[in-house]
Amino acid sequence: MTRMHRRTALFALAALAMVSAAPAQAQIKGLEIIAPANPGSGFDQTSRAVRDALMEAGLATNIQVLNVPGAGGTIGLAQLVSGQKRGPTLLTIGATTVGAILANKPPVTLEDAAPVALLLKEYSMLVVPANSDIKTMADLSAKLKANPASVTWAVGSAGGIDHIIAGQVTKAVSGDASKTNAINYAGGGEQIASILGGHVTVGVGGVPEFASQIESGKLRAIAVSSPERLEGLDVPTLKEQGVDVAYGTWRGLMTTKKASEAEMKELGDAIRKMVETKAWKASLERYGWIPAYEPSDGYAAFLKGEQDMMRTALGELGLLK
Question: Is the pLDDT of residue 158 over 50?
């Protein structure tokens, strides 16, 4: 090999090494994530965790989280479906979205959007103010047996997961879910304020949403809705306290049906890589979320099952029109 050829080969090897060492180029630019609830909600926390993990891994840049609260997430869904397509867009949804669609029959449904991926599952807690005379689930059950209507439940959107859990507990204890006396709140802050103020008997919500108030001693957790006790949380399940209810929420991502096949693949690939990142796994641990990733096909089948289950639960609550 001549000196010139050796020099050319060395330059080529050096260039290859530089390319290999360089960080991966972002695949998606200008991504918008619609969080269909107020800041601090489960939808918002999930949307921002997705944003942070995608950006840290170099899978996307210039990501904006847009809060569009209201109507159990269906206002955000309507914006996704009817909005002018400007760039790649994701919508975070959950069990609450499915319930709101079934109960309220809005003009747009999940059939008008395209599933991208299921991300996680999350269970709920039943909480009371620290000064409440309800110390355990047995105390709450006694009140429900005596007079179900006298027990007021602070829950999120009508037909949402909090509402369904309240109904299933009322049914398991008193035999009639339709007697559930639920008070709906648009945001977690309003719900927590009502519970702390003693304006309701008991509240139902995601574990992360109540965590700080429980740690400060302002709220008392009397049960979790998971099949087994949650790691790191010293709270008994409903089942182990004699109430045969085990159900939780979940969150996943949808996109517009206007997205091309190439754009769908790009979004799906980015999320598939994202759920393996350290940043995403750190968010799972921080919020107590349970990993439940499913790509678009598995997610679509999951959504169908959820719709069937929630249709039954909402019918028992008397919420289906």
Answer: yes
